[in-house]
Write a structure and sequence with these properties.
Elements (H helix, E strand, L loop, with lengths): L2 H23 L4 E11 L25 H13 L4 E6 L8 H9 L5 H16 L2 E5 L5 H8 L4 E3 L24 H13 L4 E7 L5 H18 L2 E8 L16 H15 L4 E3 L9 H7 L3 E5 L16 H4 L1
Parallel strand pairs: 1-2, 1-8, 2-3, 3-4, 4-5, 5-6, 6-7
Helix pairs in contact: 1-8, 2-4, 6-7, 7-8, 8-9
């Protein structure tokens, strides 16, 4: 198939995606003012593109204290934020004895136990609504955390098992096995917990694998109806990681995937792309199907992508 035919097909794709977005959301693009609370930077996974996860020797403490979490939330409340997004690594106590000791010395059996206490304190003392990103969980943990949060998030990233094999970006990361992540999303659906999920574009997957990942998420949504937003996030190569020299996905690949998500999930689904990862290119994301920028903080950085500052809220508006 020649280049002109492909370009024509892509333009038709974008027109269809834009029409669906206008049908479902009109001309308004939303965002949420929130603070990001990095409860712990420790993680038992070793994703080859991540700079959020740290080794114990490189951080002052395995976890933020609850007082520190509440203070961050208070700053957010003063700046007009409505939501507190808790970010953390997956079950670090299963890898690091120092994390296990820290928790047990304070009377907590697991990171998820501690997360529940921190989220409850933030809500009770500041009124900010907790949104939790705890990683892979079973039904019992989800049920417990449901009582102290308004929603949860778990990126599928990809449903390709190939990327978990040796040499892949998820090799050595048990919580990135696609089946485990899909099981967590289904468990949240059984308990009627609103969740945000999505794809990480450009970590070595093919277009066909991206489409399959979207189909897998659509299957979950059709069964339970609890997915409130699909994030299509572009991979960014970060210094100090094994994928520091990897090619980042082009804007064309990113918007193609956004448009496919819009067509697959229809006009009613909220489709998000982080605005700080495509500075200067936001109109293209909107045309492809984005209607929401997700959480943008006037107080805290994006702890997962600290090299990419948030756009100024006035400029974004």
């Amino acid at each position: 198939m020649n280049v002109k035919v492909l370009e024509r097909m892509d333009q038709e794709l974008f027109r269809a995606a834009e029409a669906l977005t206008l049908e479902g959301w009109g001309r308004e693009v939303t965002y949420s003012r929130k603070v990001f609370i990095p409860l712990t930077h420790l993680c038992r996974d070793v994703c080859h593109y991540c700079t959020f996860a740290k080794a114990p020797r490189s951080i002052a403490s395995p976890f933020l204290t609850i007082d520190e979490c509440v203070e961050i939330a208070r700053q957010g409340h003063a700046a007009g934020c409505k939501e507190a997004l808790f970010t953390l690594g997956d079950q670090p106590e299963l890898r690091y004895p120092v994390a296990q000791r820290w928790l047990h010395e304070r009377g907590y059996g697991s990171t998820l136990d501690y997360l529940a206490a921190a989220a409850e304190a933030v809500f009770e003392q500041t009124g900010l609504l907790p949104h939790l990103n705890p990683g892979v969980m079973g039904e019992a943990d989800i049920a417990r955390l449901r009582t102290v949060s308004v929603s949860m998030g778990l990126m599928l990233e990809t449903s390709s098992d190939r990327l978990s094999q040796k040499g892949g970006p998820h090799f050595g990361s048990p919580d990135k096995v696609p089946a485990r992540r899909l099981d967590t999303l289904r468990a949240a659906g059984k308990l009627r917990v609103p969740v945000t999920t999505g794809l990480l574009v450009g970590i070595g997957e093919t277009r066909d694998e991206r489409l399959q990942s979207l189909r897998d998420l659509r299957d979950v949504q059709e069964e339970y109806g609890h997915i409130q937003e699909i994030i299509i996030q572009n991979f960014r190569a970060k210094p100090g990681t094994r994928m520091a020299e990897a090619d980042e996905p082009s804007l064309a690949e990113h918007v193609w995937t956004i448009a496919q998500a819009r067509l697959m999930f229809g006009p009613a689904m909220s489709i998000q792309a982080p605005p700080n990862l495509r500075a200067g290119e936001l109109p293209s994301l909107i045309r492809a199907g984005v209607n929401d920028w997700g959480g943008v903080s006037p107080v805290t950085p994006d702890h997962v992508n600290p090299e990419a500052p948030w756009p100024h809220l006035d400029s974004l508006a």
